[in-house]
């Protein structure tokens, strides 16, 4: 009688991988619940997450042992019978993450606590594409800046470093693939910063980093979908649904520099007229302000200061830029239809008339969904640090101190 071959057995790594992913997800939702609702009882976390009380207790014990959470000082009575419910909360007293954001005129280095709050911050000037030490010198000085901040906070223990920048940044390889305004190409940021700091380094584009900051700590928490538009010298965007930021192949998603803007007049390096980045760039804003006699430099905050001092030309330049930003938001809304839109743009962050111009250009009824970033006073510091914090909250047992 012929033998029938037995069906192939499932290899053992498959369930182990699935179990590991499930544990990582469960740990993430528990720590996120503590972040969002703490001080909170373990029984409440179980109800919010759908996990069993035993699982929640186990994860909370692990987080406590690692120093990520702590029991609140005063237990809450549960109703007069049984043991009181002892709430847990984030322990934001000991751990920090480093943040590095490289902009065109300067680098921002910072320390952030587990709630995404900036503990310390410093700005380091560099010369961009003409910096004599190149990208490696810029990164070395950033590492030195972080070390100086840590020296000034001796009780803080760093969990890792987050790096953010504009341009094309590949999260998986930890590389700035291309940043034309800085003159950077294929810069291995993770490798370089890791060698200088001795810490885990996580790398992402600043628009995506700020989406993660908004969903963890800001106005987009709980939103099913979020669009972030960053308007500085670099103009780019990021989009997230259900806590997942879309990266695309080699993290190229969000490259909108050459999106055509209706009514644009500036000639782009690509040869076309009216590309989004050249129209809205802070360089363009400052050049127009110089031509109008408003300022004599290249710092966009000086344009905002002039407008605050009553200069009508400065105010007009800022509101017109906000209006064009609103047109760009409207185009992205048509394509992506997000629940929440966050805009980082200096006029919108500083002036109600700019926010009004932005929303008017977006149009009703969608304008109500559009607002400025939560982190107006520390947006670049938060962009860098939130790259590392996103990793922590996605995999708290893998990214917490025992793993370092």
TrEMBL record:
Residues 1-23 are annotated as: Disordered. Pfam families: ROK (PF00480). InterPro entries: ATPase_NBD (IPR043129), ROK (IPR000600), WH-like_DNA-bd_sf (IPR036388), WH_DNA-bd_sf (IPR036390). Gene3D superfamilies: 3.30.420.40, Winged helix-like DNA-binding domain superfamily/Winged helix DNA-binding domain. PANTHER family: BIFUNCTIONAL UDP-N-ACETYLGLUCOSAMINE 2-EPIMERASE_N-ACETYLMANNOSAMINE KINASE (PTHR18964:SF149), ROK (REPRESSOR, ORF, KINASE) FAMILY (PTHR18964). Belongs to the ROK (NagC/XylR) family. This is ROK family transcriptional regulator. It comes from Streptomyces caeruleatus.
């Amino acid at each position: 009688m012929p033998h029938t071959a037995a069906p192939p057995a499932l290899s053992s790594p498959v369930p182990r991988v699935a179990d590991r992913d499930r544990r990582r997800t469960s740990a993430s939702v528990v720590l996120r619940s503590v972040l969002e609702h703490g001080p909170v009882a373990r029984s409440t976390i179980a109800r919010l997450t759908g996990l069993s009380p035993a699982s929640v207790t186990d994860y909370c014990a692990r987080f406590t042992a690692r120093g990520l959470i702590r029991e609140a000082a005063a237990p809450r009575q549960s109703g007069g019978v049984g043991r009181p419910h002892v709430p847990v909360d984030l322990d934001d007293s000991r751990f920090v993450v480093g943040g590095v954001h490289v902009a065109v005129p300067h680098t921002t280095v910072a320390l952030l606590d587990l709630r995404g709050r900036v503990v310390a911050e410093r700005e380091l000037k560099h010369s961009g594409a003409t910096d004599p030490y190149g990208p490696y010198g810029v990164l070395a000085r950033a590492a030195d800046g972080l070390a100086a901040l840590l020296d000034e906070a001796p009780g803080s223990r760093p969990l890792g470093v987050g790096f953010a920048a504009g341009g094309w940044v590949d999260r998986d390889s930890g590389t700035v693939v291309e940043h034309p305004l800085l003159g950077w190409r294929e810069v291995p940021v993770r490798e370089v910063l890791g060698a200088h700091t001795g810490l885990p380094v996580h790398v992402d584009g600043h628009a995506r980093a700020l989406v993660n900051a908004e969903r963890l700590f800001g106005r987009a928490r709980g939103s099913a979908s979020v669009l972030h538009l960053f308007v500085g010298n670099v103009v780019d965007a990021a989009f997230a649904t259900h806590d997942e930021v879309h990266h695309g192949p080699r993290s190229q998603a969000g490259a909108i520099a050459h999106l055509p803007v209706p009514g644009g007049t500036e000639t782009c390096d690509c040869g076309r007229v009216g590309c989004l980045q050249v129209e809205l760039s802070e360089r363009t804003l400052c050049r127009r302000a110089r031509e109008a006699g408003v300022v004599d430099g290249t710092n966009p905050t000086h344009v905002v200061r002039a407008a605050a001092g009553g200069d009508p030309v400065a105010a007009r330049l800022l509101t017109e830029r906000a209006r064009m930003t609103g047109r760009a938001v409207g185009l992205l809304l048509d394509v992506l239809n997000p629940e929440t839109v966050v805009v980082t743009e200096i006029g919108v962050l500083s002036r109600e008339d700019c926010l009004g111009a932005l929303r008017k250009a977006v149009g009703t009824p969608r304008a109500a969904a559009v607002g400025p970033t939560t982190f107006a006073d520390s947006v670049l510091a938060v962009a860098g640090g939130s790259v590392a914090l996103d990793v922590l909250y996605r995999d708290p047992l893998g990214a917490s101190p025992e793993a370092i």
